[in-house]
Amino acid sequence: MTRTQFFSAIAEASGMKTKDVKEMFNHAYDVIMKHLPKEGKIPVGNLGFIKLVQRKARLGRNPATGEQIKIPAKTVVKFTVASPIRAAFVKKKPK
Questions:
Q1: Fewer CB under 10 Å: which end of the chain, C or N?
Q2: Domain boundaries, the chain
Q3: DSSP percent split of the chain into helix, strand, coil, nearest 5
Q4: How many Å apart are CA 47 and CA 64, to the nearest integer?
Q5: What is the pTM of this model?
């Protein structure tokens, strides 16, 4: 599904114009960009959460040479899917 198809599907399901759906997502983007650095975690409807995660510095390996390298600590953005969505699509392995 392309981005345009995604917006069109939402517009059709909600009775909104595609232009209005795109504008709504642009506003959601603006809210996330403004509040995520302060809040650290933002809910995205019933889809899940966008959050900032601190990764520690660690040792890694250069795959080409096998040489050990230092990977610095950094902040990354992570999306965690809501439990109902995860349960519907991720099957647990039998023990």
A1: C
A2: 1-38, 40-95
A3: 45, 30, 25
A4: 39
A5: 0.74
